[in-house]
Amino acid sequence: MRLSGKTALVTGSSSGIGRAIALRFAREGADVAINGRDEGKIASVVKEAEAFGRRALGIRANVGSFAESRSMVERTQSEFGHLDILVCSAGVFHHTPFLKLSEEEWDEVLTVDLKGLFNCTRTAIARMAERRWGRIVYITATSGINPPPQMAHIAAAKTGAHGFARSIAAEFASAGVTVNVIAPGLVDTPILGNFTEEALKEFSRRVPIGRIGRPEEIAEAALYFASDESAYVTGQILNMSGGTVI
Ligand SMILES: NC(=O)c1ccc[n+]([C@@H]2O[C@H](COP(=O)([O-])OP(=O)(O)OC[C@H]3O[C@@H](n4cnc5c(N)ncnc54)[C@H](OP(=O)(O)O)[C@@H]3O)[C@@H](O)[C@H]2O)c1
Fold it and tell me: Which of 8, 2, 60, 12 is nearest to 32 (CA)?
C-alpha cells in the first residue's frame, strides 16, 4: 500500500472531491482526519474510511478561522502522533455576475478558498519540516489558470492559491516538504448545485473529452502527490479539466 503508516488531514472531506481523496488514502493505508461543517456528513465519511481498516477522525471546523484550523491540525497531530499529508479541498463555489457580487460573497470565497490554505498550512508545515517529510496538496480550479466570466471572486481566490502554493513549495523544498496543486475543471459533486442548470449545460458542452470529471479521478492525482513517488515534484499545478483548458 502506497500510504502505509502515513496520516492525512483532508479539509472539505465530508463531501465531493475531498471525500474521494480521503477514502482513496484510507484504501492505500493512511489514517485520515475528515473535515467539514456538517456533523452528519463527517460521521458518514468516517465510517466509510474505517471500513478500510484505518483510523479515521472526524473534525468539524471552519477552515476560514485561523484558530479552528490550528486546533484541527493540532488535534490530528496529537491523535495520530504526527501529520504527514495535508490536502486542502474545502471550498465554496458560486457563479455570480460581477455586478451582482456582494462584499459578503467576495469575503466568503476569499476566506474559505484562499485564507483557508494559509490557516491550515501555517500550523501543519512546521512539524512536517521538522520531520523532514511532508506532502501538501491544494485543490483549486481551472478558473485560477484561465478565469471565466462571472467568477471574479473564485478566480481571485484560486489564482492567489497558485501563487501561495508555488512560494511555499520553493521555501520548503529543501526541508523534504512538497507542495502541489490540482486545478480541476467541472467535477461531478454537490457543489455543482450552485450552478443554474443552464450554466451547467453550457459548461459541460465545452469539455472536449465529452463529459465532466469524477471525484475519483481527482483522488488518483492527489494520491500521486501524497506519495513517495512524487518526491521530485513540487510547486506544480496539474490541470484536470478534460481538455477544457489547454
Ligand atoms: N466540483 C467542481 O466542479 C469543482 C471544480 C473546480 C474546483 N473545485 C474545487 O474543489 C474543491 C472541493 O469541492 P467539491 O466539488 O468537492 O464540493 P463539495 O462536494 O460541495 O465539497 C465542499 C467541501 O468543503 C467543505 N467546506 C465548505 N466550506 C467550509 C469551511 N468554511 N470549513 C470547512 N469545510 C468547508 C464542505 O463541508 P460541508 O459540506 O460539511 O459543509 C464540503 O466538505 C473546492 O475547493 C472547489 O472550489 C470543484
Answer: 8
